[in-house]
Amino acid sequence: MKLIGSMASPYVRKVRVVMAEKKLDYRFQEDNVWSDDTAINASNPLGKVPCLVMEGGEAMFDSRVIVEYLDTLSPVGKLIPASGRERAEVKTWEALADGVLDAGVLARLEATWAGRQDGERCQAWIDRQLGKVRTGLSAMSQGLGEKAYCSGIHLSLSDIAVGCALGWLEFRFPQIAWRADHPNLGRLMDKLMQRQSFIDTQPR
């Protein structure tokens, strides 16, 4: 398998962490989708990463779809419950973490995209998206409480998704003091950063 992605993308990181935790072999191909010479459209018509290309050449995209598939490839370290309320809980955690990222990415693009002049940027839009980030962080903190993991008693996709979101916020929005506001999220992130899968995939 070949994974096309960016070292800075938190969605790509989520897939890479899952692959590491599942002990799956793959080749990583770095691509900048914002570059004029990007080749991502040949595999994903939406022009986004991550994109997983199978041995036969068929492609799979969207991080949620990819990690769902990857979890079925090996019994090692099952990350998503098979069915029922437990499964719904894990997928809801993933949706919350990805939603925080979606808002953060929109805020950052509005503030930094080279296709706009400074006078064309909308601070009200940026503030609205960052408000979603903060309410999402509060929901994460409340849901985690004093538990060791977001869902159940072992590492799951819930923790991976949350950890990738928190790591990206530290990387792109260091001014958001989520560790001070939500110490339990800081403790979870510190624990995740002891895992080789998170150490090897830090955004850059």
TrEMBL record:
Residues 1-78 form the GST N-terminal domain. One of its GO terms (molecular function) is glutathione transferase activity. It comes from the Bacteria. Residues 83-204 form the GST C-terminal domain. Keywords: Transferase. One of its GO terms (biological process) is glutathione metabolic process. SUPFAM superfamilies: GST C-terminal domain-like, Thioredoxin-like. InterPro entries: Glutathione-S-Trfase_C-like, Glutathione-S-Trfase_C_sf, Glutathione_S-Trfase, Glutathione_S-Trfase_N, Thioredoxin-like_sf. Pfam families: GST_C_2, GST_N_3. PANTHER family: MALEYLACETOACETATE ISOMERASE. This is Glutathione S-transferase domain protein.
